[in-house]
């Protein structure tokens, strides 16, 4: 009876709103981390864009890091800078300069290795604000393509023969249904 009085008086509803509201607000602020998969020896594009594209690329500094420590790539005022780039990434990373004004500061990492796996962070420093984006890079072994042996390869003449037989069967069925002749 006591519970019924609490519910009907509205205290329980008010209490539950104040109790659970912070949980929902906190959950809505969680951002999802993007995941990219690549294969050993292959390449992968790691995406990075600010919430709003820049008006100009001047005064924009973009720095890519892995595990918050190693410098992977840098773009300063629209120019690539590899001066502080970690040796592991030399000649293996490129960006897309024609996309900078659209706010695309993604990078492409070539010749992927097991050591490339991990969390990459793209830091975007603009005049009045800064943003960062995280991307998890997963590296998988290169899958072997299955090459059929000679005995299992489809032969073009067999395919043509099967299609011809089906076509003749369909035509004769249609002809028999139109003329009323049954076999």
Automatic annotation (TrEMBL):
Q: Which domain of life is it from?
A: Eukaryota
| UniProt KW Glycoprotein keyword | yes
List the signal peptide residues: 1-27
Can you cite an annotated GO cellular component? external side of plasma membrane
Q: Its GO biological process terms? A: regulation of cytokine production; regulation of leukocyte cell-cell adhesion; regulation of T cell activation; T cell receptor signaling pathway
| Glycoprotein keyword on record | yes
Residue ranges spanning the membrane: these are: 158-178
Q: What is this protein called?
A: Ig-like domain-containing protein
Which species is this UniProt entry from? Cyprinus carpio
| Source lineage | Eukaryota, Metazoa, Chordata, Craniata, Vertebrata
């Amino acid at each position: 009876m006591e519970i019924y009085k609490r519910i009907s008086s509205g205290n329980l509803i008010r209490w539950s709103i104040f109790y659970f509201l912070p949980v929902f607000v906190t959950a809505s602020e969680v951002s999802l981390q993007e995941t990219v998969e690549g294969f050993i020896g292959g390449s992968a594009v790691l995406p990075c864009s600010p919430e709003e594209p820049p008006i100009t690329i001047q005064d924009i500094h973009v720095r890519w890091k892995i595990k918050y420590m190693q410098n992977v790539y840098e773009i300063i005022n629209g120019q690539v800078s590899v001066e502080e780039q970690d040796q592991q990434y030399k000649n293996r990373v490129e960006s897309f300069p024609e996309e900078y004004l659209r706010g695309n500061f993604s990078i492409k990492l070539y010749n992927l290795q097991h050591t490339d796996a991990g969390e990459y962070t793209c830091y975007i420093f603009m005049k009045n604000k800064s943003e960062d984006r995280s991307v998890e890079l997963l590296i998988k072994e290169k899958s072997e393509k299955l090459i059929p042996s000679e005995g299992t390869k489809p032969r073009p003449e067999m395919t043509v023969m099967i299609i011809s037989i089906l076509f003749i069967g369909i035509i004769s069925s249609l002809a028999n249904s139109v003329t009323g002749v049954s076999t």
